Amino acid sequence: MSMTTKKPRILIVYTGGTIGMIEDAETHALRPFDFTHLMDNVPKVKKLDYEIDNIQFNPPIDSSDMNLEHWRLITRSIVDNYDRYDGFVVLHGTDTMAYTASALSFMLQGLSKPVIITGSQLPIGEVRTDGEENLITALQIAAAKDPDGSGPMVREVAILFENYLWRGNRSTKRSADNFNAFKSHNYPALAKIGLGIHFEPKALARPAAGTTLHPMYEMDPAVVVIDLYPGLDARTLDHLLNTPGIRGVILRTYGAGNGPTDRWFMDCIKNGIGRGLAILNVTQCGNGGVHATRYVGGEMLSSIGVVSGHDLTFEAAITKMMFLLAQDLTTTQLRYRLAIPLCGEMSY
Fold first, then answer.
1. Which residue positions in the chain have pLDDT lower than 70?
2. Residue 265 belongs to a domain
3. Angle of helix 68-80 relative to helix 97-107, nearest 10 degrees?
4. Which of 203, 234, 263 represents a domain boundary (last residue)?
5. Are 30 and 16 in contact (CB under 8 A)?
6. pLDDT at res. 2
7. For position 132, what pLDDT does the model report?
8. Annotated active-site positions, please?
């Protein structure tokens, strides 16, 4: 009896970004191009012997134009095709890639298949492009199976870039020039890429058996970001906290979650919480996180109701806030869910 191996079925969602851009002949500026141009420049994809289909944004966009509706389109593209494909590759510009990865991790609740986001620093048509390798490796990761036969090797949203696969909601863009453009400062790599693809089993998400996909499409952008800095005064802070329509605040604090201990500062924050604002404390530092009881400034913020974001990235913090604000939660429920991991986005 002959045994036939089923070809992996992968869906590529092409949003745009540098990977598919070409240089304008007159201005020499890079602009998005279509998916056919991109694939024509990567003939090696055919050697993978996968069944590959694609959906593309019309028109493709620069990732600086990414918005909440685009996140919904990507989510719908995955959900509508979830049962037909083994994995998904999202081609995306680098500037907002970590925001999209974080948003999708919240919107695709119950995900148990790979959603691999990648792009490039140089367009696919350039001689030294990193796009070809990133695309091929992303496809291989999306098709990879766990050796134990339990399902896909990757069962979460992840960013593949150059030599590493990172958890999407733990990642941030760290370089505008380096091919290794992304980094997860507080969580290990899911895989390291060299001569082969070497997965780190202990770092990979493993959803509970029987988990089913239940997407959440809505995000509420009623969020303001406040960066602390020496010289911030009461008038400016009060103005930001009274921005019309806001419901949530990302407070980017110093070091381990510290802010000024001056009475005016604490009064402004306390008054905002009293008006119903949810305020989430995240550090301005790339590495480490909020330790609310380490210093008096952080302890005072915690005591008046500011929620610790632990080691959330900024990208994960703002998308998590948008995600939770869109749900019908009481203030107590909102504060509780902000403080705990929902899909591996924070240590707790």
1. 1-5, 21-26, 28, 30-35, 37-38, 41
2. yes
3. 50
4. 203
5. no
6. 46
7. 82
8. 18
Calculate the CA 181 to chain-centre distance.
Answer: 14
Structure tokens at 265: 């500062």
For residues 246-265, one letter each, b for 16 or more C-beta atoms within 10 angstroms of the residue's C-beta and e for the rest, the string is bbbbbbbbbbbbbbbeeeeb
Whether the predicted model's global pTM rises above the 0.85 cut? yes
Please check whether residues 48 and 83 belong to one and the same domain.
yes
Q: Which CATH number fits the domain that encloses residue 319?
A: 3.40.50.40
Give the DSSP letter string of 224-293.
EEEE--TT--HHHHHHHHT-TT--EEEEEEBTTTB----HHHHHHHHHHHHTT-EEEEEESSSSS---TT
Residues contacting 7, CB < 8 A, separation 6+ = 49, 50, 51
pLDDT for residue 252: 98
Reading the block at residue 67, the tokens are 């918005």
Half-sphere exposure of 342 (CA within 13 A, CB side): 26
Same domain, 130 and 34: yes
Q: How many alpha carbons fall within 13 Å on the CB side of residue 318?
A: 18
Q: Where are the beta strands (DSSP E) in 223-342?
A: 223-227, 248-253, 278-283, 307-308
Cα–Cα nearest to 158, from 175, 144, 171: 171
